[in-house]
Amino acid sequence: MPTALPQLSTPRLLLRALEMDQTETLLRLVSDPAIADNTANIPSPYTLEVAQRFIGQMQEKYREGGLLGQGMHLRETGELIGMVSLRINARHHYGHLGYWVAAHCRNQGYAAEAARAVMDFGFTELGLQRVGSQCFGRNKESARVMQKIGLCYEGCMREAFLKNGVYEDLLVFATVRDDWERAR
After folding, report:
1. CA 141 to chain centre
2. Quick one: DSSP state of residue 17?
3. Minimal CA–CA distance to 110: which of 83, 76, 137?
4. Where are the domains of the chain?
5. Are strands 130-136 and 94-101 parallel, antiparallel or unpaired?
6. Which of 66, 113, 56 is nearest to 86 (CA)?
7. DSSP state of 77
8. Mind listing the UniProt keywords for this protein, alphabetically (predicted)?
9. CATH entry 2.60.120.10 includes domain 8-131
């Protein structure tokens, strides 16, 4: 696996590691309660220290082979509008997609564009066999993104995740290398 975080591009986005000077922007975007509410690992409240630690560890986590984390930046302006990640399980050749988009940029196809680019990178450059993701049953927007990029619905794990004192259903989506290759 390469040691430096790649820079990926799509027609509208540049996907790259965050820089420390983006800490305040990251903090402002992630402080939207909907982001923490719809993700498994983002704490609320999100603090400046958490943002600094997250940015500071991006390269190291990729070098260690566990996480490809990329900021979604608009190509035209360079504005940070979200994050996309691929949590890598090298032993099983599996990648788990995650993403979020800033409130003012939702419903414009950015999540699907970024997730597709990262999924393609996982199959072509990392040699993954399977890429998948999960979302809370109530998060129809995220389920739509997964279907849009070619992940197939595999089922619902009922009350599988405890979030803010409530057991949440997890919808499971994935694709495997053969299906991804046929769809290309």
Report:
1. 14
2. -
3. 83
4. 8-131
5. parallel
6. 66
7. T
8. Acyltransferase, Transferase
9. no
d(C-alpha 40, C-alpha 52), whole Å: 19
What does pLDDT average to in each consecutive run of 10 residues of the chain (184 residues)?
84 97 96 91 91 94 92 98 97 97 96 98 97 97 97 98 95 98 92
Residue 27 CA neighbour count, 13 Å, CB half: 13
Q: List the beta bridge partners of residue 29.
A: none
**Of residues 37, 31, 33, the one with CA closest to residue 164:** 37
The one-letter code for the residue type at 77 is T
Amino acid letter, 166: V
Q: Which residue has tokens 């499971």? A: 172
Do the Cβ atoms of 146 and 119 come closer than 8 Å? Answer: no
